[in-house]
Amino acid sequence: MKYIIFLLIINFCFASLVHSQKNVNSKDFSKEKTITKIILVRHAEKEKDGTKNPALSIEGEERAKKLAFMLNDFSIDRLYATPYLRTQKTLGVISDEKKIEITNYDARDVEFAKNIVKKEQGKTIVIAGHSNTIPALVNQFIGSYKYKELSEEEYGKLWIITFVNNELVDCSLFNY
Predict the structure, then answer these.
(1) What order do you get walking across the sheet with 157-164 strand by strand?
(2) Mean pLDDT over all residues of the chain?
(3) Which of 32, 143, 153, 157 is most buried (CB neighbours < 10 A)?
(4) The whole model's pTM is what?
């Protein structure tokens, strides 16, 4: 008799465990996930013409084309760039190909990172900035001081930051 009661208790515990595991799994699949991707780049190579607002050099124009090619398979919803010619032209190829207008942003706005995650929730956006502003912006998005300013000759870094339900899940750095 003790043996039968023991088996019944074990069977009940196993059945309860399986049932609770099914509930956990079904909650995971039924919970809606909102994925936000933020892609950040420094502007491409600029002309060394001594002005404060130079255009892209020939190398920079080629890099802008390479960036557009790399991001071609992404479903991009919005483009952001500082109001300088070099950042606008860096995203210009993407803008032309995908028929998306470039929205200007102020790189000095300390609330930009926080506001953009809320405003662009569930979207994929690309942000172009500068050697000092893009690493700082990445650091704001990830909530950690991990990336330092880029050198004046470094143009080929691309960060992809992913949020799920407004929580950071990944920050990947690529060279292009």
Answers:
(1) 102-104, 78-81, 124-129, 35-42, 157-164, 167-175
(2) 88
(3) 157
(4) 0.82
